[in-house]
């Protein structure tokens, strides 16, 4: 298990958004992950892990993350828990049209419930506006209720933590469907991190893929950074008899193989269109998913093998901060520093 450690003061966010249905509280973001990040190197946020393999999130200085609540929500109150009281964060609340409804910027007290009384909230944005120091969030809870289930196409999976050369499945789900008979969507991914293998429908008795187009190696410039994008366009509908989708359903399964590359990267839906039984074409909300990728431990230069070159690079980066590593990862034992212990670690791998 590789634990990514960043030598910087950053937010550690163990998210526990909760929406209440009556008196029962349900974790609204169970299986959901933040949006709007383009990876560890220069991204607004990235994933980390503790020794119990619990996922947390670091919001970088001047960074932010966005959670899509999956429907219009009434937010009654919130609780927040973090350590640096003098370093506030900003919470922004948006409706389904991305209109800013309410803003909170303050240093709140440790685990105190604050009243909000907001209606029609779809997204919550957490912003670290400080250029250096940031608070350490432990927990954030939103209490309220979901008013409706909006039509959406969503990327989902069993685990968003993937290791080098691992084969893993990603699913495209439809939610909030009402008499839907056909779907047309495009899934995008970074080919630096993953290789697309195949696609298939989940419900082979009722649905089929009628069109598939795979495009790879398209250079995309995003916020000053260049990433290599692959895209899969799929058109799905019923097979032998009329079949309408209502509510939630898994549409297709996409199989990927992880490459030997460190970092966080998203698998997204870039376009989506569905049509109902009355012939209406509808545009759903599109929700992607951020993945954390680990490469081979000790493979400093990420070429897929442990060699003398990895030992040389470990020596070169002794005592240096992570900001100077570039695309290398010389902290092989994950203790937060590059030291003689890392040289010993790589050498032991070479002996094997």
Give short descriptive properties of this protein.
352 residues; mainly beta; eleven-stranded mixed beta sheet; five-stranded antiparallel beta sheet; 6% helix; disordered N terminus
Characterization of this structure:
The protein has 352 residues and is mainly β. It contains two helices and 20 strands. The longest helix is centred in the C-terminal third of the chain and has 12 residues, at 340-351. The two termini are 19 Å apart.
Could you give the distance between the termini? 19 Å
Tally of alpha and pi helices: 2
Radius of gyration: 22 Å
Parts with pLDDT < 50 across at least 5 consecutive residues = 1-23, 37-43
**What's the overall geometry?**
flat
Strand proportion, as a percent range, falls in over 45%
Question: What structural class do helix, strand and pairing data support?
Answer: mainly beta
Number of strands: 20
Largest β sheet strand count, sense and barrel closure: 11 strands, mixed
Layout of secondary structure:
Blueprint: E1 18-21, E2 24-27, E3 45-49, E4 55-59, E5 64-82, E6 89-94, E7 100-106, E8 112-127, E9 137-146, E10 152-156, E11 161-163, E12 167-190, E13 194-201, E14 207-222, E15 225-238, E16 245-258, E17 263-276, E18 281-282, E19 285-287, E20 289-294, H1 308-316, H2 340-351
Parallel strand pairs: 10-19, 11-20
Antiparallel strand pairs: 1-2, 3-4, 5-8, 5-9, 6-7, 6-8, 10-12, 12-15, 12-16, 12-17, 13-16, 14-15, 17-18, 17-20
Helix pairs in contact: 1-2
Short description:
With 352 residues, the protein is mainly beta. 6% of the residues lie in helices and 53% in strands. The protein has helices at 308-316, 340-351; strands at 18-21, 24-27, 45-49, 55-59, 64-82, 89-94, 100-106, 112-127, 137-146, 152-156, 161-163, 167-190, 194-201, 207-222, 225-238, 245-258, 263-276, 281-282, 285-287, 289-294.
């Amino acid at each position: 298990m590789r634990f990514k450690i960043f030598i910087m003061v950053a937010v550690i966010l163990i998210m526990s958004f909760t929406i209440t249905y009556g008196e029962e509280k349900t974790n609204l973001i169970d299986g959901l992950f933040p949006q709007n990040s383009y990876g560890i190197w220069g991204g607004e946020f990235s994933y980390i892990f503790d020794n119990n393999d619990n996922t947390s999130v670091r919001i970088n200085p001047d960074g932010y993350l966005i959670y899509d609540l999956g429907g219009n929500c009434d937010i009654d109150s919130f609780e927040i828990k973090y350590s640096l009281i003098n370093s506030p964060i900003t919470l922004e609340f948006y409706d389904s049209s991305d209109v800013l409804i309410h803003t909170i910027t303050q240093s709140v007290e440790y685990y105190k419930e604050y009243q909000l009384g907001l209606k029609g909230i779809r997204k919550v944005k957490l912003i670290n506006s400080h250029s250096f120091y940031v608070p350490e969030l432990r927990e954030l809870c939103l209490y309220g209720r979901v008013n409706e289930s909006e039509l959406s196409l969503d990327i989902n999976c069993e685990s968003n933590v993937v290791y080098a050369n691992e084969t893993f499945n990603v699913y495209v789900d439809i939610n909030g469907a009402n008499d839907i008979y056909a779907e047309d969507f495009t899934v995008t991914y970074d080919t630096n991190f993953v290789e697309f293998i195949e696609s298939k429908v989940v419900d082979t008795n009722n649905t089929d893929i009628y069109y598939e187009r795979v495009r790879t190696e398209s250079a995309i410039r995003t916020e000053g950074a260049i990433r290599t994008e692959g895209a899969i366009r799929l058109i799905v509908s019923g097979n032998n008899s009329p079949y309408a989708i209502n509510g939630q359903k898994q549409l297709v399964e996409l199989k990927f193989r992880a490459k030997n590359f460190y970092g966080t990267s998203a698998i997204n839906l870039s376009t989506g269109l569905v049509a109902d039984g009355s012939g209406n074409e509808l545009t759903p909300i599109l929700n992607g998913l951020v993945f954390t990728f680990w490469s081979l431990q000790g493979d400093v230069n990420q070429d897929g093998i442990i060699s003398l070159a990895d030992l040389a690079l470990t020596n070169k980066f002794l005592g240096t901060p992570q900001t100077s590593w570039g695309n290398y990862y010389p902290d092989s034992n994950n203790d937060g520093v590059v030291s003689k212990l890392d040289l010993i670690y790589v050498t032991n791998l070479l002996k094997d």
